[in-house]
Design a protein that fits this description.
307 residues; alpha+beta; 13-stranded mixed β-sheet; three-stranded mixed β-sheet; single chain
């Protein structure tokens, strides 16, 4: 193996780790594209890595240990690169920074689901809770009313009693019936059916929801949404109904259901889209985006860039 090829393979692994971080920003995407297109051995190393990752299977790809095993190679330089790229996930959970790393990864959440895997739970009062793929939800200890906090993902609750939900910086006091609450990017969504609720954002007046209402909210304020309760809860049926949804938020929603990386870059970050998407069909969603908006969709193995 030449020194250039060895360096390219180490760089490809480092880019894979960096781009899987949800915090990867626009400069990082530009830098990756410049690296990938800058030399033939870079593109070849990236394609080789993506083929190996693609052969692992969806469940194993979510496990850093399985990824590391699949990428092992008898050449010592690659072993060192793998330890550097994937070993940090293990090392970060030990020592002084272990608790913080576990919290950021959601390992200490009361309920958590993997990519592409939804989950169910029952609260102490008998209320049923269903949560979407890649969700992280905390249950606060204490008396009635129960309180849950959605770190990421979305939930559908069929209430037996009152419930308080913290999501996207807001507190929602629910009186009964059914509640669907979600976090997409920096915005939150709540829909109620069968009873009312009250939404509170810091520094703003409370907003009342009647049965059938759906609201979108973020630190800038609260807006009524035309989505029905069934549309807001469509994820429970494998669908996503978007109403002027920012493209980065759509990419985040699909990231909960697919191990592929979808990143929105440049001017595309300002686009919004409406439509009905099948969460299990990433390719179909990308075709919908390309057909509806003036954007370019570029594939790099398991990485897709929309710009």
């Amino acid at each position: 193996m030449t020194a250039a090829r060895s360096r390219a393979e180490r760089a490809a692994i480092a880019w894979e780790v960096r781009l899987r971080d949800p915090a990867a920003d626009e400069p990082a995407l530009h830098a990756f594209r410049a690296w990938h297109d800058g030399a033939p051995e870079h593109a070849a190393a990236w394609a080789s890595l993506q083929r190996r990752l693609g052969s692992i299977g969806p469940r194993a790809r979510g496990d850093a240990h399985a990824v590391a095993r699949a990428l092992r190679h008898p050449i010592e330089e690659r072993r060192r690169a793998l330890r550097a790229a994937f070993g940090m996930a293990v090392l970060g959970l030990s020592g002084a920074g272990g608790w913080k790393a576990a919290h950021e990864l959601g390992y200490d959440a009361t309920w958590r689901s993997g990519i592409g895997e939804q989950g169910d739970a029952i609260l102490a009062d008998g209320s049923s809770l269903r949560f979407d793929a890649a969700s992280r939800i905390d249950l606060a200890e204490g008396p009635v009313p129960a309180r849950i906090a959605i770190r990421q993902g979305q939930v559908l609750v069929q209430l037996r009693d009152r419930l308080s939900i913290a999501v996207a910086g807001a507190d929602i006091a629910c009186e009964g019936g059914e509640v669907c609450a979600a976090r997409l990017g920096r915005r939150g969504i709540v829909a109620v059916r069968g009873a009312g609720a009250t939404l509170r954002l810091p520094g703003r007046s409370p907003v009342a929801l009647a049965s059938g209402d759906t609201l979108c909210f973020d630190p800038d304020g609260v807006r009524a949404s035309p989505l029905s309760f069934n549309a807001a809860a469509a994820w429970t049926r494998g669908m996503l109904v978007a109403d002027r949804l920012p493209l980065p938020d759509l990419a985040e929603a699909f990231g909960r259901h697919h191990h592929d990386i979808v990143r929105v870059d440049g001017a595309a970050r300002r686009h919004v889209i409406s439509g009905v998407f099948k969460l299990g069909d990433l390719e179909g969603a990308l075709r919908q985006i390309a057909g509806a908006l003036p954007v370019r969709v570029a594939r790099y193995g398991l990485l897709t860039m929309v710009a």
